[in-house]
């Protein structure tokens, strides 16, 4: 279903629509005065810090696009291992900013980023490379996925902090599944044991299916394919895979060798 594949131009309108929906939910959660210093699922972060993080991240995207359009040499990416400490430092630096000022800034940043992404030509959506502050050069469509990760996953974080039962939007989770496979490739621990082995993933949702995962000295490779006969298969619904990749919980059902499946899941640091 190409309209649900955000890596293709056919999926552009879909992901931008879903990002807008998730952003609307996010801002509604952050607006009440008594929510501002409420806890979230992000350790040590209040709602205000999550809003600040999205401001910092989105404004970093603006700078990245400016550099790419100017053909200038970008700064070296920080790398995902450095992401946790740096985004925390950036987020808490906004704690003296008022709720209204920070939310107004976040909304303005959101609209500006939507404008940048909407204006991309079909060729630029897939072919214009912009250096991500942590991941290095990625196609422009990845920034739409980054916005969806921020608003979709961090809305989940705010809801989790309320203590109420809740669930993640299927549209958001389905669109993010392909990007979770990429994130796994980028988040293998430096000291991981890469002695070769293979496992299968069975993922639900519009971008799901069966995937063969091969681990070896070069890292992780994946491809849709037959997982019959593999020693372990991990089954996820779309949201469970997203939340597992982001370290929000330990989800999934193992069929076969539980120890091998757990070895796979422990190859990665979580962001």
Automatic annotation (TrEMBL):
User: Could you tell me which InterPro entries the record lists for this protein?
Assistant: DinB/YfiT-like (IPR034660), Maleyloyr_isom (IPR017517), MDMPI_metal-binding (IPR024344)
What molecular function terms (GO) are annotated for this protein? metal ion binding
Pfam families of this UniProt entry? MDMPI_N
Look up the domain of life of the source. Bacteria
Q: What range(s) does the Mycothiol-dependent maleylpyruvate isomerase metal-binding domain occupy?
A: 21-159
From the Swiss-Prot or TrEMBL record, give the protein name: Mycothiol-dependent maleylpyruvate isomerase metal-binding domain-containing protein
Provide the organism lineage as a comma list: Bacteria, Bacillati, Actinomycetota, Actinomycetes, Streptosporangiales
């Amino acid at each position: 279903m190409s309209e649900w594949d955000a890596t293709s131009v056919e999926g552009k309108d879909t992901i931008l629509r879903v990002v807008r929906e998730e952003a609307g939910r996010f801002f509604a959660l952050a607006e009440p005065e008594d929510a501002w210093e409420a806890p979230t699922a992000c350790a040590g972060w209040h709602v205000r810090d999550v809003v600040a993080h999205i401001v910092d991240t989105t404004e970093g995207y603006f700078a990245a696009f400016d550099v790419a359009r100017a053909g200038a040499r970008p700064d070296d990416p920080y790398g995902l291992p450095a992401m946790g400490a740096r985004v925390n430092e950036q987020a808490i630096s906004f704690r003296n900013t008022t709720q209204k000022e920070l939310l107004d800034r976040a909304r303005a940043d959101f609209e500006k980023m939507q404008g940048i992404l909407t204006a991309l030509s079909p060729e630029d959506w897939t072919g214009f490379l912009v250096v991500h502050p942590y991941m290095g050069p990625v196609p422009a469509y990845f920034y739409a996925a980054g916005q969806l990760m921020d608003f979709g996953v961090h809305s989940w974080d705010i809801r989790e902090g309320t203590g109420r039962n809740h669930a993640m939007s299927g549209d958001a989770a389905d669109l993010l599944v392909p990007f979770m496979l990429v994130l796994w490739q980028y988040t293998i621990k430096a000291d991981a044991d890469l002695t070769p082995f293979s496992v299968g993933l069975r993922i639900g949702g519009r971008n799901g299916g069966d995937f063969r995962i091969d681990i070896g000295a070069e890292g992780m490779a994946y491809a849709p394919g037959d997982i019959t006969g593999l020693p372990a298969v991990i089954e996820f619904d779309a949201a469970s895979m997203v939340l597992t990749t982001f370290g929000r919980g330990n989800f999934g059902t193992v069929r076969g060798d539980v120890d091998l499946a757990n070895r796979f899941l422990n190859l990665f640091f979580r962001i």
